[in-house]
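Notebook entry, structure prediction.
Reason for the run: the old model in the group folder had no record of what sequence produced it. Starting over properly, with the input documented here first.
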Amino acid sequence: MRVHAAAPSQAAAVLQDLQAATAFPHSCDLEGASHVLQSLSPRSYAPETREAWRTYLQQVGAGDAVNRQFERLGSGAAVVVTGQQAGLLTGPLYTWLKAARAISVARELEARSGQPVVPVFWVAADDHDLGEINHTFVRDRESQVRRIRVDFSATRRAAGEMPVPDQAKNALSELQEFGSLDPEWLTRFDPQSGDTWSRWFSRCLLQVFGEEGLVPVEPALLGREAQPLFDEVLSDVTRYQLAFLAGSRRLQNAGLATPLDPNVVPVFWLSEDSRDRLTDRGDGSYGWRGGPLDSRELSRVGPSTPRVSADASLRPLIQDRVLPVAAFIAGPGELRYWAQLRELHAEYDISMPAVLARPEATLADAASLRTMRKIGIRTDQLWQEMAGPREEASHPSEGIGQDLRQQLDTFLQSLENEGGEVWAVSARKARQLSDTFDQLLERSTSARKQGQERARLHREGLGTLIRPREKPQERVLNGLPFLASLGPGLIRALLDLEAEPGHHWLLSPDGEW
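New structure, fully documented this time:
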């Protein structure tokens, strides 16, 4: 694989603004993560938690590399965490970019410090927004973007509690068809009996990154460890909101957006068919659309339902309270809302990790490189060339041909005007010459238009590669067709990517011209 610095990254500009607003207590790089690592104390986990987590890893097909890392967690290893919703067949490519960066940062921190550091992937199994995770996108043989979707019917269960629908097999068949994948290779990603949607996601993720030792976890597995923080927050939600509001105002005073609302209760109540935010009833109790809840009910966390679930602001605090987190790998949107959380971490005496940006990248396969060769675009020109509509300039030969045709007409007209024997002898040949020249002009114009049309189609195909559905590739396309095409070298290349220089990377096969 070849790696090219193709364009500036979105995260670089976001981080520049946030660091100017002192959003984070540590620098958003490996130096900041190293500083946090030195200050962390080992965490212990209840035997029930460790056993539930171990069983989960067995259920999702974890291999030796993952199990070794899990055992290091129990021996006091620090962690680098990232996370994402449980998208269909691992969802968009940015999930892979997050996972790869968590692995590489964990390795770098361990090499620098000599301390054990484990990469952990937090699967958002509490998510009820099934419309965001029931589909994925691939490019077909004609470079058209195709949507693959699994129908969940009318269910509203959380991803961690919903069995994988039978229709999931159809999604694999469509992926095979549209992505031109080997059906035998694709069986590695089949759901297994008893899989929930989030468990299937973890199974697929480990098929990609399991040999690198990435350890997945779902919130329910840590419910016992998280309960004290839930109790503390719900015992005085105003305290939570005031600290959150202070972080939000800090950013607002710097002229920056605050994506999360600090004025709501940061806890959801999960029932069999819904996820409802709790409301503060003003008397020390809470309610949801099903009625009021007493303290005993609110203490019911764990794998059974109903139970409580953290929102986007509380989830990082739970993660950082339960796990010894040296660094969190975030996308551009996550960077913005993590910037609101500094005061919350301080209020609840929770060590805030270094927040590092995930890499941003676009993948190009061999077929895409051949297309670029045909229309004369180099990899270092790709973004500039594809930035906007292209106006086709007329070819120089077109003007030359028209000039020659005009000169021929002028010459023949002069012969005709002279009349006499010369014209009588040459008239038939003159007409033949004129017709032949017209045919030449017509054929050259037609060939040129056909070439322009082929180039236009090639450019449109490249457009669906780098900006499918008018969005960056990493936010839309599924990674499995690229892995099938590019092989294990793709994973090695992803692990080598860095985010700090602020580049959006282009990855292409070896042999690029």
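Summary: The CA atoms of residues 372 and 378 lie 7 Å apart.
The old model has been moved to the deprecated folder.
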